[in-house]
Request: fold
Amino acid sequence: MAIQHLRILLAVAALSAAGLSCTVHAEGLQADVHGLVVPETVKAEDRGSSLYLQKCASCHDHPQNNVPPRASLAYRSPEAIQYALAEGAMKPMAAGLTAEDIEALTVLLSGRKPRPLPDPMSAACKTPAAPLVLAEQDWSNNGGSHTNTRFRDYGWLTAESAPRLRLAWSFGYPGGAGGPAVLGGDRVFLPAGFGFVLSLDAETGCVRWAFRRPGRIVRSLAISGPTGEQPRTALFFGDDLASVTALDAATGEQLWHVRVEDNVLSRITGSPSVYEGKVLVPISSIEDPMTHVGSHACCSSRGGVVALDAATGKILWKRHHITEPLRDLPAVGADAPPRRGPAGAATYVPLAIDARRGLVYASTAEEYGTLDAAGPYSVIAYDIDTGERRWAQQFLPKGAERDAACAAFSETDCRNLFSMGTAPLIHTFPDGRQLLLAGQKWGYVYAMDPDDGGRVLWRSKVANGGDMGGVIYGLASDGERIYVPVSDVDAKAPGRAGSLLALDPATGKTLWRREGPVPQCSWTQEGCTAAQIAALSAVPGAVFGGFNDGWLRAFSTRDGAPLFAFDTARDYETVNGIPARGGQVSGYPVVIGRDALFVTSGASSVERPGNALLVFKAGQR
Ligand code: HEC
Reply:
């Protein structure tokens, strides 16, 4: 099959966010697949194999981007596979299968039978909780705060103490790590597998409560004290059916649950932001892989932002990033379904809240088609109160520049490449001036003037770029420098994935650059890379990165010298008795607390997922 016919999908977006991505190859393969007949009397293994060939092989034997290759599914727990098929992301792919079919597939892929639903309350706290009181600095969502600077100065963690970090305890997420922790007062909150959301004691890891939304995938959380008319400290999250839920953060009791999009392909993966009585939620989609499914009437889902009343869940306003009306497009062949568009522009990263200007900023990903609509590949500013669009900056190159970029990435359809990969970051200079920054999968970081309609002040090419970044998930700023994680997962030797840069916020000039580490995957030698498919987190003098080889690493903010490294991809005995396994350190993995570092290993990872929450403290000198 000619490579140019491969349409490549959404990249990492998908991992955390935008969901399914699969390149369904040429006609021949589908014909094979559909030509299979499953005999009634085959053994379970054979039955699993036949079903796999019929229903799964077209994607998992030809993986692209975030489609986990078949071999990697063996690393997943049988429970996670069963859950994915019965209730989760693969439910549409498993349509029509019986429980026995699902078990046969699970056994085939993982080598064993799934266990029953875990009881997350088996490690319940024995003592009653103190009242839950949040602190101003609590790491409240995946960006760490409204501005996504991902920086904390609590005093205990610095360049000097970082080398003395020791694992204090670990916790096994039941059913896999859905996403990273958020912190509130003396509690930790986690999105886990099987639709669980948990609250733990931050000191001991005992479980305060567990909430379950069966059949949903929860990837991120946000916590807020009383806000607007909402009198309680509450936890907010979206799920893979584009619903938003509010829980009482102290008890886990549901306050409200609201579906914000009708399109079945819409989903929420980025964490909400809570501000003055409003819950602002980024809307993403899983339609990108469907663009490769011949029978799908592509495409209709659109990313956007929805603002909900924190007290009631009432939708106050909702805006899609693409405003052009959806229209019918000519079908591409005689038997092909009708097409629609324009669609896309998912937001799978956190929003940024600009309290000074009353704006909320969204980074947007690719268009699901080639109409060159306005909205995708952009940073867009909306009025927090009304939802009115104040400005939009699109970062899709034009003409010769685009042709050259696409020629350099001949293996992709060259659309996802230009997706805005990171959450917008609001950087404040010592004199109070501000800058808005965002990274792109293409390998650029852009600085915009928030007082001048997002006018581009500088752009800096920091990475080769690719569907998995380039620059993805999140930058960090300590007020002095901007830190940039580089993925470049496909870097060819002698180039190396996973470099790290410090940029001068005033000019965009590189202050230092550290080449990617020599990758060390404990689970494989083949295809091991140390790409950073993860946001950075910073403290005074040190910046922490998550790496695809399973390592957590910290570097000096002065010159990038290594300060600390820990291989998370191993097995752990945990405080809650659910065994934990570390994996790739992806997404938004490093959360800085007032006396501990909370690191999630194995969330948002393609090849080596895990379920470990690792809690580090600084050892004695
Ligand atoms: C149209 C392409 C496609 C088909 C067909 C498909 N998958 Fe997937 N599968 C994906 C993608 C993409 C992901 C990653 C989903 C994500 O990260 O949200 C995935 C993820 C998974 C996962 C991991 C889910 C998780 O998040 O833990 C399992 C297990 C899985 N698939 C099994 C199967 C099985 C078994 C079949 C056949 C019944 C199947 N898939 C059919 C594309 C496909």
